[in-house]
């Protein structure tokens, strides 16, 4: 090629590049200038078309844009209706998708016009509502007044000296529980107040009513506040029980003036203490350490009460911010002023409301936060108990009557204002660093309102009564109110729609401070317009018509009052009548329902505008998601924002909107740019130091977008979860391994569950492995590093406690079951379906009917297709807007792969369950209340348990893992679900022993002492310490470890049985006193003698026939490896109540019973069964030996059978054997059943149960856990007491005995939680 030709080629290439760049620039400009162009048919300017009109860009070219209505008319006017329509400009054939879009635009226009009509009518009704006589924005509370000259009697009038605000706000601390001895008194005191209020209402005496309501506000503060501290030493002046008993005695005597005098003195001291604490100064390090220690201490106290979730929140909370000027400003900005007045009276007729609080009080959480008065849930829970006192037992009837009047709006207006006073807590959002302190940067805070428990409970009851009606009104757009699994329905439905329609755009809508800024007047009006919510309205109106007082800081100052902070005065910007004047308090019982009802018209209009296109709108409370074509969804979102601003004064924050589309290019979308909505995305660092952008949005806590977006979010979540687990270990490992295990078992292990349920396994399993590894490290911190290191132990740890595992399920293995179950349960609510009552239940994603088939879940398979059409990729001929039909969606592929993978796991194992059916039938015909995930897990875990059992039984005899597997029973595993309560708490060294022994692993107490000699007493050679502590347990030592272990276990068992109501006695020597001389019978003081004939207990109870011999046949078939245990036939027939002698025995690892054939071959609990079989023989031999002694024969006038005759009169001696793995013999399990049955009948009223039958499950769970932990703890103490003998020299004559390490107070009889 010549030089000139080269120049010409370069010039040609340059012109081509310039042409391409010019075309691309022009294309971008054309996209940006879409709204400045004209319709190709009517030539109207797109910037001037009606808001309800739809602009349609045909696929032939992006500049071919028309009014959808013009296109529809042009398509209808063509001469040949059979031929496909063509573009009016280029005559190219219009695609089916464009045709469907044009048709849908007509439906959209109709929906817009209907919404406009409804909005105009709504505005008219609001104007009429606003014209009603308004309520005062600030409610006036009664002030203190002088007492009357002539007291009416009973000293009720003494409360006149205290204002309603003083009665409603307390600076004092309060006891956590009403003492058992005072529960009846507390109930009677409440009845006194309710009777006084009712008498005042009946007589029309407003002053007396005011007094009664003041007493109702402060009764708990007067009677149940904590005792005053002394001026020196920091102790209490008198003990709590004495102080409270004195107050209740004064109440009974009518000495209310004295009560109030002491109350006022305590309040004065408490306010002074709060002022001093507010001026405390400390360094950043001192404060950090103090808050950390306080958080751990508070968390441990909550663990002891069984409030695991609250304990974990306390442990990981960033705390409450100090009330500075900056923090105060943040709180004030969250609570704007009221724009519209609220009517003083409801203009609608409402019926009288009837409230029943018994079940509501029963379900109240213990240790929940308290409002400004300090009233506690525990004070209300105790009122539901039975007191065997007519007056006290009437308390709930009186409370219901009072609550019904309150809910009906029949009490004075001021009382609602006083009862609504709440505390406002500024919770820190992000940890404060030393740099923040040095730079004087104040933390960002999240305001949390904590109201009074009484009003909260009544609101909960009233709201629950209308929840089904709310769900009917809000369906199918709102998934957060009254919809079980609503979030899962929305996540799965939106994901499938995006998979079907890659050109759809998902927009996440953000409303600024929605709960606090929604117009209160409009909210009340819209709720009142729903007839089904009539019982809800009086109380909602009464609590919202005036501004709520919010108290902040230790001095409990109102939010918009003047504050003196850091040497400066902080005044409110404007004069405010109240603190929370508009909106509704987020987290309050009625708030979510009322808020959702208020925004429902706009949400329904948004949904109706998008439904014609195959999209829609859904919300999870104030998180709203719109889905549809870009040309429809962005204008619809804009109209939604304008509508909620006009009607509800809510601001849609355009800058915080997020949008995503799998296929549509949002970068140059003219509708997005016109709205100003940003594209949802995340920046992910690359290995080369750069970063890459991935698109996506979060839907109700679940990532939805490109694979990189989902993966980046998952990595961040996993990092957060691992950090959470590591912090938990760091905080609790030294303080309490028992609490650490409870945190892992109940909290940490569930942190990833939501993700597993809502994302396919192929996206989560790699991340689940990371969390699994963190959980394993945390669990090993309860024992020692590597305790779960071998494959057998690791597999066992994954099994639930009922299958002899730890319940530390592998999240990697849980993933397919969680995802499949969630999807099936969500899919069943996608489409309309019939209800058992003959009605129709609206589906939330009816537009998916072509994908699943109409009526897919109406009837059991095969009468309804369920998932068969979805998983086959075959659909009906309906093709909404060009959806890609005839192929399996990614969700369908993931579901099918996961389901079939689980089927392969269980195939051939002979375990029945939901995996017996094919994937298209998944979930078909499942019965019972258990969810599908639980049923899937039960089937898979049974298979894994069977496989593990075969592997363990293949281990050599003597392997401690095999021994532990065959030994443990329901008592052995009871500690797994325990927490460190007062009776079940284990010290650090005890718990580590329990943890490792249960798994058959090395003992943390002696594993470092392996090879050292054990200083045995006697003439035999010394034993050598092994890693499992077996030789230490078998050694003959000069200590009382064996006796302490035995006595502590069976003293607890017999004591609990007696406390449960069974008749009997511990160590009943008197049964043989007539036939054995006292010297022989009593032996050494403090022991049961050396004759071995005195049993551990005698009880009158109903036990089954005793069968301890090795079973040689069951129902005619020879099964030598099966013991008498399990079914009713195997355990023998029931017998009438009788006197039974009970003998307790403990056995230790390495002894003959653990080496016996029954222990090796007979399955679970063989060692204790082997020892139990010898008890009766031993007693008969001892009785015969005593009968053979001359002095015993002389005592019995020559009889040679006297002792044996007495023994035979009691029948078989029942053998209560407890093994080293905390397993128990059959007779002990049977005794357990008797104790539970007796406790249920004796104590069901005391625990607040409705019947003995209802109480039985509580006592069974509580007592099994208490005994199981106690058995395991005593064996752990046995080993720990003996550790001092390892490596010690053998005792020489004259040398003092070595002191056993460890001294624990024994629980007294009856310490079980009855």
Structural overview:
Helix content is 47%, strand content 7%. The strands form eight sheets. A four-stranded mixed beta sheet has the order 4-3-6-7, covered by helices on one side. Strands 10-11-5-12 form a four-stranded antiparallel beta sheet, sandwiched between helices. A hairpin with a 2-residue loop joins β14 (691-699) and β15 (702-705). The radius of gyration is 37 Å and the shape is globular. Mean pLDDT is 85; it is low at 22-32, 230-237, 875-885, 1084-1089, 1114-1129 and 1292-1314.
Name the features.
1314 residues, 47 helices, alpha+beta, disordered C terminus, 23 strands
Compose a concise summary of this entry.
This protein is of the alpha+beta class and 1314 residues long. 47% of the residues lie in helices and 7% in strands.
Q: Within the largest sheet, what's the order of strands?
A: 4-3-6-7
Indicate the low-confidence ranges by residue numbers.
22-32, 230-237, 875-885, 1084-1089, 1114-1129, 1292-1314
The profile of the biggest β sheet is: 4 strands, mixed
Extended strand count: 23
Average of pLDDT: 85
From the N-terminal CA to the C-terminal CA, the straight-line distance is 104 Å
Task: Report the structural category.
Answer: alpha+beta
Report helical residue fraction: 40-55%
Organism: Emiliania huxleyi (strain CCMP1516)
Keywords: Metal-binding, Zinc, Zinc-finger
Protein name: RING-type domain-containing protein
GO molecular function: zinc ion binding
């Amino acid at each position: 090629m010549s030089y000139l030709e080269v120049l010409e080629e370069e010039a040609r290439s340059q012109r081509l590049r310039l042409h391409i760049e010019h075309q691309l620039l022009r294309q971008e400009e054309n996209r940006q200038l879409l709204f400045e162009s004209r319709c190709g048919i009517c030539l109207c300017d797109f910037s001037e078309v009606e808001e309800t009109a739809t602009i349609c860009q045909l696929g032939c070219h992006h500049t071919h844009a028309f009014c959808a209505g013009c296109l529809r008319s042009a398509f209808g006017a063509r001469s040949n209706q059979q031929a496909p329509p063509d573009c009016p400009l280029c005559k190219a054939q219009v695609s089916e998708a464009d045709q469907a879009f044009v048709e849908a635009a007509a439906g959209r226009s109709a929906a817009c016009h209907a919404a406009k009509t409804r909005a105009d009518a709504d505005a008219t009704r609001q104007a009429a509502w606003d014209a009603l006589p308004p309520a005062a924005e600030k409610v006036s509370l009664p002030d203190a007044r002088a007492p009357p000259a002539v007291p009416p009697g009973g000293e009720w009038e003494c409360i006149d000296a205290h204002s309603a605000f003083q009665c409603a706000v307390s600076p004092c601390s309060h006891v956590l529980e009403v003492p058992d001895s005072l529960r009846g008194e507390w109930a009677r005191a409440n009845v006194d107040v309710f009777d006084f209020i009712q008498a005042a209402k009946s007589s029309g005496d407003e002053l007396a009513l005011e007094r009664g309501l003041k007493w109702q506000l402060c009764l708990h503060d007067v009677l149940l506040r904590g005792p005053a501290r002394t001026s020196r030493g920091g102790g209490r002046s008198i003990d709590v029980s004495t102080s409270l008993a004195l107050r209740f005695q004064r109440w009974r005597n009518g000495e209310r003036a004295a009560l109030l005098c002491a109350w006022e003195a305590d309040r004065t001291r408490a306010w002074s203490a709060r002022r001093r604490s507010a001026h405390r100064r400390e360094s950043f390090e001192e404060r950090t350490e103090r808050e950390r220690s306080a958080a751990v201490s508070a968390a441990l106290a909550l663990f002891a009460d069984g409030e695991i979730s609250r304990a974990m929140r306390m442990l990981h909370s960033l705390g409450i911010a100090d009330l500075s000027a900056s923090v105060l400003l943040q709180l004030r900005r969250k609570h704007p002023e009221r724009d519209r007045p609220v009517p003083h009276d409801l203009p609608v007729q409402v019926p009288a409301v009837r409230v029943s609080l018994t079940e509501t009080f029963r379900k109240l959480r213990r240790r929940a936060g308290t409002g400004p008065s300090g009233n506690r849930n525990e004070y209300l829970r105790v009122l539901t108990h039975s007191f065997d006192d007519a007056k006290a037992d009437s308390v709930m009837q009186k409370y219901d009557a009072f609550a019904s009047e309150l809910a009906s709006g029949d009490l004075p207006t001021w009382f609602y204002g006083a009862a609504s006073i709440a505390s406002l807590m500024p919770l820190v959002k992000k940890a404060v660093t030393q740099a923040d302190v040095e730079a004087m940067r104040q933390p960002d805070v999240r305001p949390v309102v904590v109201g009074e428990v009484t009003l909260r409970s009544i609101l909960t009851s009233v709201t629950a009564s209308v929840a089904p009606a709310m769900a009917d009104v809000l369906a199918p757009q709102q998934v957060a109110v009254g919809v079980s699994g609503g979030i899962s329905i929305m996540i799965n439905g939106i994901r499938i729609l995006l998979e079907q329609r890659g050109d759809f755009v998902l927009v996440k809508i953000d409303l600024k401070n929605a709960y606090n800024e929604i117009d209160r007047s409009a909210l009340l009006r819209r709720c009142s317009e729903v007839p089904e919510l009539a019982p809800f309205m009086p109380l909602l109106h009464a609590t919202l018509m005036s501004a709520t007082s919010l108290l902040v800081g230790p001095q409990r100052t109102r939010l918009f009052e003047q504050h003196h902070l850091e040497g400066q005065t902080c005044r409110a910007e404007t004069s405010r009548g109240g603190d929370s004047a508009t909106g509704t308090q987020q987290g309050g019982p009625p708030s979510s329902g009322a808020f959702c009802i208020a925004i429902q018209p706009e949400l329904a209009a948004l949904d109706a505008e998008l439904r014609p296109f195959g999209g829609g709108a859904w919300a999870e409370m104030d998180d709203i998601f719109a889905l549809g074509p870009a040309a429809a969804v962005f204008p619809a979102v804009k109209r939604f924002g304008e509508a909620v601003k006009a009607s509800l004064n809510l601001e849609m924050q355009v800058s915080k909107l997020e949008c995503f589309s799998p296929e549509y290019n949002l970068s140059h979308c003219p509708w997005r740019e016109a709205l100003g909505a940003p594209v949802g995305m995340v920046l992910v660092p690359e290995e080369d130091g750069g970063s890459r952008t991935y698109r996506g949005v979060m839907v109700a806590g679940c990532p939805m977008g490109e694979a990189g977006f989902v993966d980046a979010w998952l990595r961040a979540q996993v990092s957060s979860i691992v950090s959470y687990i590591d912090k938990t270990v760091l905080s609790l490992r030294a303080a309490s391994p028992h609490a650490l295990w409870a945190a892992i078992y109940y909290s940490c292990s569930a942190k990833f569950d939501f993700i597993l349920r809502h994302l396919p396994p192929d996206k989560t399993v790699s991340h689940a492995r990371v969390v699994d590894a963190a959980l394993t490290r945390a669990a090993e911190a309860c024992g020692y590093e590597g305790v779960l290191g071998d494959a057998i132990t690791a597999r066992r740890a994954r099994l639930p406690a009922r299958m002899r595992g730890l319940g530390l399920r592998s999240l990697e293995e849980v993933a397919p079951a969680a995802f499949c179950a969630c999807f099936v349960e969500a899919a069943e609510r996608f489409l309309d379906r019939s209800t058992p009552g003959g009605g129709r239940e609206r589906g939330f994603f009816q537009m998916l009917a072509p994908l699943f088939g109409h009526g897919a879940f109406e009837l059991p398979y095969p009468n309804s297709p369920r998932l068969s059409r979805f998983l086959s990729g075959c659909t009906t001929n309906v093709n909404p807007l060009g959806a890609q039909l005839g192929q399996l969606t990614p969700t369908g592929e993931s579901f099918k792969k996961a389901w079939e993978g689980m089927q392969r796991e269980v195939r051939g194992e002979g375990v029945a369950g939901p995996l017996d059916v094919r994937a298209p039938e998944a979930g078909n015909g499942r019965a019972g209340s258990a969810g599908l995930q639980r049923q899937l897990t039960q089937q898979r875990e049974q298979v894994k348990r069977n496989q593990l059992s075969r592997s363990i039984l293949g281990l050599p005899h003597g392997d401690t893992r095999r021994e532990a597997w065959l030994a443990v029973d329901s008592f052995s595993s009871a500690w797994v679900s325990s927490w460190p309560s007062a009776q079940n708490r284990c010290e650090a060294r005890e718990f580590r022993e329990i943890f490792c022994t249960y798994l058959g692993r090395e003992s943390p107490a002696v594993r470092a002492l392996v090879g050292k000699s054990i200083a045995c007493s006697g003439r035999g050679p010394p034993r050598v310490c092994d890693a499992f502590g077996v030789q230490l347990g078998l050694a003959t030592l000069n200590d009382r470890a064996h006796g302490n272990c035995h006595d502590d276990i069976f003293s607890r068992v017999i004591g609990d049985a007696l406390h449960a109501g069974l008749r009997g006695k511990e160590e009943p020597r008197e049964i043989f006193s007539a036939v054995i001389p006292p010297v022989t019978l009593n032996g050494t003081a403090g022991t049961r003698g050396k004759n071995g004939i005195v049993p551990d207990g005698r009880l009158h109870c109903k036990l089954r026939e005793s069968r301890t011999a090795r079973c040689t046949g069951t129902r005619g078939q020879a099964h030598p490896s099966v013991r008498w245990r399990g079914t009713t036939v195997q355990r023998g027939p029931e017998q009438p109540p009788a006197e039974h002698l009970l003998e307790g025995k403990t056995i230790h690892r390495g002894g003959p019973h653990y080496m016996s054939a029954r222990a090796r071959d007979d399955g679970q609990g063989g060692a204790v069964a082997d020892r139990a079989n010898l008890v009766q023989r031993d007693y008969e031999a001892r009785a015969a030996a005593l009968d053979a002694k001359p002095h015993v024969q002389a005592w019995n006038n020559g009889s040679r059978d006297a002792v044996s005759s007495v023994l035979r009169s009691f029948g078989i001696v029942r053998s209560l054997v407890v093994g080293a793995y905390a397993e128990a013999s059959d007779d002990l399990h049977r005794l357990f059943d008797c104790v539970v049955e007796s406790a249920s009948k004796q104590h069901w009223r005391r625990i607040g149960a409705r019947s003995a039958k209802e109480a039985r499950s509580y006592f069974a769970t509580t007592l099994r856990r208490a005994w199981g932990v106690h058995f395991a703890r005593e064996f752990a103490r046995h080993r720990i007491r003996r550790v001092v003998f390892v490596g010690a020299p053998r005792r020489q004559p004259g040398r003092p005995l070595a002191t056993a390490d460890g001294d624990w107070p024994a629980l007294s009889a009856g310490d079980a939680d009855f």
